[in-house]
Amino acid sequence: MNRLALFDCDGTLVDSQANICRAMEECFSIARLVPPDRAAIRRIVGLSLVDAIARLVPDGDTALHQAMAEDYKHAFFTMRQRGTMDEEPLFEGIADTLTALEDTGWLLGVATGKSDRGLHHILEHHGIKQRFATLQTADRHPSKPHPAMVETAMAEAGAAPETTVVIGDTSFDMAMAVAAGAHGVGVAWGYHGPEELIGAGARIVADHALHLPGHLHETWSGSSPAAV
């Protein structure tokens, strides 16, 4: 079986929080609701859009959540069209980490709450889209932590749960890994803290991208490190 390193996108590969917060604030304003603070918005990054908005507006109905999701997508697309988006850089060390994993035989993939269009845009912008053997998005799957994205990625990559590592910054990513029977490795530079990631099932939490290849080797080889 192939070894698959399946990355989350926002908060794991790229730092996109500023644009996510701006688009969310815009869709709340259109709905004539007071936008949540940015800390609350960052907490729901990683979920599919309707599910994320439902968490932020628990008293709203499905129709409101869906309408706000469409307004969010429009706001995001408008920022991109007008060239007013903040920079969405790769986190430090990510490019070298992808190379190191490829050089040691890992297949790479992405499992994200973004849309197909949004994911393809950001990966193409950074020139890394071709490096991923499988791309799974919210357009074709239930929201994390449902295991569908991981299960489809494994099928496409010819990997098994025991040879698959889900790498992400939120408890949703780690719970998704557990639900699929895969390993979870958290990252400390995203939106949920290390203790929360461990509590959701992460075997370890990397504090820098360049530490990931070593952690993946330890995880795949069957060790169970406890230190964060």
TrEMBL record:
One of its GO terms (biological process) is DNA repair. GO terms for molecular function: phosphoglycolate phosphatase activity. InterPro entries: HAD-like_hydrolase_sf (IPR050155), HAD-like_sf (IPR036412), HAD-SF_hydro_IA (IPR006439), HAD_2 (IPR041492), HAD_sf (IPR023214), PGP-like_dom2 (IPR023198). It comes from the Bacteria. GO terms for cellular component: cytosol. The keyword Cytoplasm does not apply. Signal peptide: none annotated. Keywords: Hydrolase. PANTHER family: HYDROLASE-RELATED, PHOSPHOGLYCOLATE PHOSPHATASE. This is HAD-IA family hydrolase. It comes from Stakelama tenebrarum.
